[in-house]
């Protein structure tokens, strides 16, 4: 169901309870996905500074990139997944070999 990223499960949650997801601010599409990833996912901010590109000034030029990383917040389980989860225990279905 998921690829390891928090926003991978967003489509499933929107199909299960679309109005609730819209009320929480996670609209369908790229903007809702990035907001959801920022709230419940793991993001890494990469800053690259280049001194040589700005020869006429003492200020450095910086490029900021935000990358998503695998993982999700435990709050995601409590808020959205707990009410839609069934726990099955397979203890009685398998017999131990003699």
Give me some keywords for this one:
22% strand, two-stranded antiparallel ribbon, 98 residues, 4 helices, single chain, alpha+beta
Give your account of this protein's structure.
The protein has 98 residues and is an alpha+beta fold. Helix content is 33%, strand content 22%. The chain contains 4 helices and 2 strands, in the order αααββα. The protein has a two-stranded antiparallel ribbon. The longest helix is centred in the middle third of the chain and has 11 residues. The two termini are 36 Å apart. The mean pLDDT is 79.
Write a short abstract of this structure:
By secondary structure, the chain is of the alpha+beta class. Helix content is 33%, strand content 22%.
Radius of gyration over all CA atoms, rounded: 21 Å
**Number of H/I helices:** 4
Strand ordering within the main sheet: 1-2
Percent of sequence in beta strands? 15-25%
Give the helix/strand class: alpha+beta
Secondary-structure blueprint:
Blueprint: H1 10-16, H2 18-23, H3 30-40, E1 41-50, E2 61-72, H4 74-81
Antiparallel strand pairs: 1-2
């Amino acid at each position: 169901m998921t690829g390891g990223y928090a926003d991978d499960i967003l489509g499933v949650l929107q199909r299960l309870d679309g109005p609730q997801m819209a009320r929480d601010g996670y609209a369908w599409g790229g903007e809702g996905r990035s907001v959801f990833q920022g709230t419940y996912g793991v993001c890494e901010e990469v800053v690259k500074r280049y001194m040589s590109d700005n020869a006429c000034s003492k200020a450095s030029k910086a490029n900021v990139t935000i990358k998503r990383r695998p993982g999700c917040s435990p709050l995601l389980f409590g808020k959205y997944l707990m009410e839609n989860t069934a726990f099955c225990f397979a203890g009685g279905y398998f017999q131990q070999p003699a």
